[in-house]
Amino acid sequence: MQFFFEVLIGGLLSGVLYALVALGFVLIYKASGVFNFAQGAMVFFAALSFVGFQEVLQRWGLPAAPAFWLAFVLTLGAMVVLGILTERIVLRPLVNQPPITLFMATIGLTYLVEGIAQGIWGANVRGLDLGIADEPVEWVMESAGLLVSRFDVFAAAMAGALVLSLALFFQYTRTGRALRAVADDHQAALSIGIPLQRIWAIVWAVAGFVALVAGLIWGARNGVQFALTYTALKALPVLILGGFTSVPGAIVGGLIVGASEKLAEVYIGPMVGGGIESWFPYVLALAFLLLRPEGLFGEKHIDRV
Amino acid sequence: MLYREAGQFKASYQADQQIFPIRQDRVGFSLVLAFFFLLVPAVANQYWLQAILIPVLIFSLAALGLNILTGYAGQLSLGSAAFMAVGAFAAYNFMLRVPGMPFLLALVLGGLCAAAVGVAFGLPSLRIKGFYLAVATLAAQFFIIWALTKFPWFSNHSASGVISTQAVVILGYAFDTPASKYLLTLSVVALLALLAKNMVRSSTGRAWMAVRDMDVAAEVIGIRPLHAKLSAFAVSSFYCGVAGALYAYTYLGTVEPEGFNLDLSFKILFMIIIGGVGSILGAFLGAAFIVLLPIFLDNIIPQLFGGLLSSSFSSNLQLIVFGGLIIFFLIVEPHGLARLWQIGKEKLRLWPFPH
Questions:
Q1: What is the pLDDT of residues B229-253, one digit of tens each?
Q2: A153 exposed, middle or buried (CB, 10 Å; 0-12, 13-18, 19+)?
Q3: Global pTM?
Q4: Are A242 and A251 in contact (CB under 8 A)?
Q5: Where in the cell is it found (chain A) (predicted)?
Q6: C-alpha span between B55 and B255 (Å, rounded)
Q7: Where do the structural domains in chain A lie, given as residue ranges?
Q8: A115 touches chain B (CB under 8 A)
Q9: Residues A42 and A211: beta-carbon distance below 8 Å
Q10: Candidate from B129, B132, B319 with C-beta closest to A114
């Protein structure tokens, strides 16, 4: 039973990471109806830029701590610029095109962003150190006898803080209210004078920020490498479980996917030869969709002729 | 001047329903067919046949399959490469395990296996739509590739899942030269393209298009969505499966499950988007574009920049140019190359007096 809980907690915590990537998807889908396949590439871009800036700054003789924060700020700036450029160059000319066209454009964007990131910073695998050791937390070990990584707890706390600050931002700021209005109804928001295109630029910038946080945590966990872009794929079953338009859905979906894939790998995997982590979340999501086509928290869609 | 249909009357239903109602189109198309069937195998060298023409044809077939599903029936799929893998491995196993199996029958059976798998993974389309369905088809992509890698029976217990295809022999004639393989591929593709063209003109195709435009409305006017959607999945997967078998037998010779990865699925999706969604011609134009573009970039980029660029940078530049071109195309002509062709034809009809 103890082993079960260890696997479960490990799964839940890795699910937090999926949820972070899914969050970026949800923000953009909610506000602009674009299924942004490039979110994974943005995560990769953010992590690679951060490490790159850090290296450059340290080569110039900056001590580690200011280099860390300066690199963070510079990367954030790069992500915001990337978001705004995306809105300006890719999405604005494609307004009113069918969703599949926009989706394809974001796949093109994926190639573009991956190429630019590796073109600037090179394709080497790099380490990323956030200063938090990947070792078990002692008091949990002593009181419950479970191995829970300090790093995973930190990642979960970061994700929690991020979601909380996003929730506050959406709830209490003027921009946040405008964002929610746009997400609710483009036309109505436009008619009461909300600048749609500026809102979209902001959403892409916020998604860039989320990608940065996800990139830092993923990068610190697995190293900054091209494989980071595939994390986006793991976020997709999270999205269909939680619903494309729900922030809490992304979190809950992430937790479900993380926990179930680890449990399935441990308990079902040996029966069929292992490696089922690659597809189990999708099949789970598929089975789930058959019961609830709009996801856990998605809006119920009513078809009218 | 030349492209004018004045004086061509349709006096019978047969004349009204032909695929190319304008005489110039018929002549032009026969010339194109004659060019590809007679002239190309005689003059093209091995590189052109083996590295360009055969893959273009095979990807055209796969794009045709996806276009039936996505362009005509409106069901977005990201799993076409997996259905190609099913076709390839099924044909391989039929050839391997049934003594005296004729190649063409194995090709068809491979396609039918892919169709059966396609229907199974198409079942969720009855409940879910749009991007939810697209993500669901990713399940097919990952599951099928995993199963083909995991169970060695599919690859005849080869160590790394790589299969080497058997020789292609039809009625005692061995298709082993590039030209003969090209002709075989071309014949299969031409036949299936004709079939697809007629399918989308028939009631089946109209049912698909009705479901695509609005499935609730289609149901109201008496089209069975279950029937339409699943038949689209079956036909589409059949085409992808045959394309996959050809990919293994006439193009590469040795394939592994990992070769049919998500990137390939995306490539096929790009083909129909760039070629034109919901167009038979578009599948061919898109496939040619996507196959030729990397070859073109490979040759042109080192020439433009000489030895200035390292090879890793030029591969990144390729990614950038590829991604940029796709975005550019979507912005400039969201309906694809087929639409450009249509516009060109309209212009030609009015030329030289457009007013």
A1: 999 999 999 999 999 999 999 999 8
A2: middle
A3: 0.88
A4: yes
A5: Cell membrane
A6: 14
A7: 19-229
A8: yes
A9: yes
A10: B319
